[in-house]
Amino acid sequence: MSGLSRIIGKEIKELLTPATLIPIIIMAVIFGSLGSAFSGVTEDIDEKPEFGLVIDDTGNLSSVARLSLVTNSVITFDGSSLEEGLSRLKEGSIGNALVHIPGNFTSNIESGSQGWVEIFYHKTGTGLIDLVQSSLVLSSVTAMSQDISLRMISNDMTAVPEVVISPVAVYSTTFLNGNEMSGVTPDQIDTVFQSSGFVVPIIVMLVIIMAGGMVITSMGSEKENKTLETLLTLPVKRTWIVFGKLAGATIVGLIMSMIYMVGLGYYYSSLLSSATIDLDSYGLSLGILDYVIIGVSLFMALLCGLAICMILGIFTKNFKAAQTMTLPVTMLAMIPMLISLFSDFGSLPSWLQVVVFAIPFSHPMFAVNNLMLGDYAIVFAGIAYTAGFAIVMMAIAVALFKKDILLTGRIRNVNEKGKFRNPLRSMLRKR
Amino acid sequence: MEAVKVTDLHKSYGDFQAVKGITFDVHEGEVFGLIGPNGAGKTTTLRLLATLLEITGGKVEIFGKDLKNEAPEIRKIISYLPEDAGAYKNMTGRQYLEFIAGFFIGEKDPVEMVKRGLEIVNLDDRIDDKVETYSKGMARKLLVGRALMMEPKLAILDELTSGLDVVNAQGIRRIVRNKTREGTTVLLSSHNMLEVELMCDRIALINDGRIMEMGTPKELKEKYSANNIEDVFVEVVR
Ligand SMILES: Nc1ncnc2c1ncn2[C@@H]1O[C@H](COP(=O)(O)OP(=O)(O)O)[C@@H](O)[C@H]1O
Ligand SMILES: [Mg+2]
C-alpha cells in the first residue's frame, strides 16, 4: 500500500499547482459575478400570449374581461367547463396556460372585494425549451384588470378604492411532471432550476475536461521524460500505479469542483434572492442527502472520465500527442452539457435518453433536476452505471499497463514524413 | 550463479524484428557492455531485461529468476536507468531520491538508501534545487545516484554517458566502476566503443538484432589484431 499512497501524493503535488488553480479560481469568480448579472434580467417580449379561457361567471364584468382578453391574447380554447379545459391543458392541446374566471367574479367585485382569476400552467420540463412565458399571460390579465378598473370608474360604480384600482386578484397553479403546485408560477420554478440545473453541468464539464487533460498530459510527460519507465521497474504493482494516478487526479478534480461550487454558491444565492417563493413545500429543493448523492455521482463520472483519459494516455507517445488526445473526452463532456441546458432528462425523446444515459458524464449533470423532481430511480441507476463503467475502464487501463503498448505507444501526431496525421484515425487504422 | 542468462531472445514490434535471437551471460560482479550502432537493438534488449517489454521468444533468467513468471521478484533486485531519462521536474533532487527510496520500504532501509544516493550524486546544496534547474550532467548524476543507491544486484544502464561532456562522462564512469566493487553487477549499453573499452570486463558487439562477437576487450582486439574496439567492430560487420 505504501507504493499506492506515494504515487497519489506525487500526482497531487504535480497537478495541484498555482498554474492549475488560478484559472479555476478566476472562472469561479466569473460565475459568481454572472449570478448577480443574470438576476437583473427581465424578459420583455412583445408577443401575444396563447391560452385557453373558461368563464363561469355570467355577470357584466366578465364580458368586459372576455373582451379585454380576446383583444390582447390568442384564445386557444373557449369553454365553460373547467374540467374539460384542464384536461386539454394537461394533454398539451391548448398551449401552456388556462385562465379561469369563476362564477363569483362580478359579484365579488361589486360587493367590494377583489375578483379572483385562476391561471393554470402546464410545464413540460425544466430545460430552456420548456420555458413557459407566464409573465405574458400575467400581463394580459393585468391589462384586463385595468380595463375593469376603467369600466368601474366610467360607470361610477361605488366600490372600495383599493378594489377600483386593482379589481382582479390572481391565483396561479402549475402542473409539472404530474405534480400540482398551487400558488406557484412556472417562472418561479425556472428560476430555481436554472440556477442549479444549468451551472452544475457546466462545472461537471469543465472539471472533467481539465482533470482529464491533466491525466493525459501527465502520462505524456512521464513517457517523454522516461519517468514512467523508471516507475515500472520499481517494486510496486502496476495496479497501484494506475490507481494512484487516478486517485490523485480524482482528488484534484474534486478540489477543483469544490472551488467552482463556492463560486456557484454565490451565483445561486444572488439568483434565488429574486425568487419569492419557497419551493421546499413542493419538494423542489435539495437536502443534505441529495448533495451527497450528487457528490457520489460526480465522483463516479470523474473516475470514468479520468480512466478513459488514462487509456488514451497509454496510447500516446509523448507530451504533444497527448494534448490532441483530450478531444474525444471534451466532446463527450460537451454533448450532455449542451443537452442539459436545453432540456431535462425526462422530456428527451427516448433514443436521446439512451444516448445521454450511455455517456457517463451525463449523470451528475442531470442529477440536480432529477433529484429536485424526486426522480431518485434514474439517479441511482446512473450511479450504478457509471460505477460499472469506471470499473471496466480501470480494468482496461490496468491490463494495458502490463502491455508493450504502454511504452511503445501508438499515437504520434506527426508521421515519419513529418506530415500531420490525425492521432485518432491513425490509432484506428493501425489496430 | 550467473547474474543474467539470456538464451535465444527474440523481440518483434509488430512485423519488425528488433532482436533476432541473442544469447549471452553476465557473470556476477562484472561490468558487461552491449555495444553497437544506433538501432542495433540495445535499448530493446535492456528494456526486455528490465521487465518493461514482453519477450516474443527465448528465455531470460536474472539471478535464477525467470523473467516471464517472476517479474515482480526481479524488480526488487534490479534497477534500470533509461537512456535520456529525466526526473520529476517539480521535485528537488533530494525529494526525488526520497520518493524513489520510499518504494523499497519493507525491503531495504530507505534512510540509508537516500544517504548513499546523496553521496553518489554529490551535488552539495544544489540537491535542494528543483530538478528542472539542473544541467544535463547534474540530472544524469542524480539518475545514476537513484539507480545505484538501492544497491541493486543488477544495474541496467542504457547509454550511460550519452550526451555528456568528457568531464561529466568520466565522473559518471568512475561512480559506476566503484559501485561494482561493492557487489553490484552492471549491464550497460553504449554506442561509444571507446567508453566500453574503458569500463567493461566483457562486451558483446551487437548489430541488426544479432550478437556478432563477444569477449573481453583484450581478447577481441587480439583476435582481430586491432588497436581498439572501434576497429574490431568495423572488421566484424564487414
Ligand atoms: N516502439 C517501437 N516500435 C517499432 N520499432 C521500434 C520501436 N522501438 C524500437 N524500434 C526499432 O527497433 C530497432 C532497435 O531499436 P533500439 O533497441 O532502440 O536500438 P538501439 O538502442 O541499439 O539504438 C530499431 O530499428 C528501432 O527503429
Ligand atoms: Mg538505444
How would you sum up this structure in a few lines?
Chain A is α/β, with parallel strands linked by helices and 431 residues long. Chain A has 19 helices and six strands. In chain A, 65% of the residues lie in helices and 9% in strands.
Structural class of chain B: alpha/beta
Number of DSSP strand runs of chain B: 10
What is the helix/strand order of chain A?
HHEHEHEHEHHEEHHHHHHHHHHHH
Give the overall shape of chain B: globular
Query: Which sheet architecture does the biggest sheet of chain A show?
Result: 6 strands, mixed
Radius of gyration of chain A: 29 Å
Structural notes for this entry:
The complex is a heterodimer of chains A (431) and B (238). By secondary structure, chain A is an alpha/beta fold. Chain A has three domains: 1-30; 42-184, 3-Layer(aba) Sandwich (abc type-2 transporter like fold), CATH 3.40.1710; 190-412, no CATH class. Helices cover 65% and strands 9% of the residues of chain A. Chain A is built from 19 helices and six strands. Chain A has a six-stranded mixed sheet with strand order 2-1-3-4-5-6, with helices on both faces. With 238 residues, chain B is α/β, with parallel strands linked by helices. Chain B has a six-stranded mixed sheet with strand order 6-7-8-3-9-10, sandwiched between helices. In chain B, strands 2-1-4-5 form a four-stranded antiparallel sheet, with helices on one face. The longest helix of chain B is centred in the last third of the chain and has 16 residues, at 166-181. Chain B is globular and about 50 Å long.
Supply database-style keywords:
heterodimer; A: 431 residues; alpha/beta; abc type-2 transporter like fold; 3 domains; six-stranded mixed beta sheet; 19 helices; 65% helix; elongated; B: 238 residues; Rossmann fold; four-stranded antiparallel beta sheet; 37% helix; binds adenosine-5'-diphosphate; binds magnesium ion
Q: What's the arrangement of secondary structure elements?
A:
The complex is a heterodimer of chains A (431) and B (238).
Chain A (H helix, E strand, L loop, with lengths): L1 H14 L2 H22 L10 E6 L4 H13 L1 E6 L2 H10 L5 E5 L3 H6 L4 E9 L10 H21 L6 H5 L2 E9 L2 E4 L3 H12 L1 H26 L2 H6 L5 H35 L15 H28 L3 H6 L2 H16 L7 H9 L3 H11 L3 H26 L3 H4 L14 H8 L1
Parallel strand pairs in A: 1-2, 1-3, 4-5
Antiparallel strand pairs in A: 3-4, 5-6
Chain B lengths: L3 E10 L2 E11 L4 E5 L6 H8 L7 E6 L2 E2 L4 H7 E4 L11 H9 L8 H12 L14 H14 L4 E5 L7 H16 L3 E6 L2 H7 L2 E6 L2 E6 L1 H7 L5 H9 L1
Parallel strand pairs in B: 3-8, 3-9, 6-7, 7-8
Antiparallel strand pairs in B: 1-2, 1-4, 4-5, 9-10
Helix pairs in contact in B: 3-4, 3-5, 4-5, 5-6
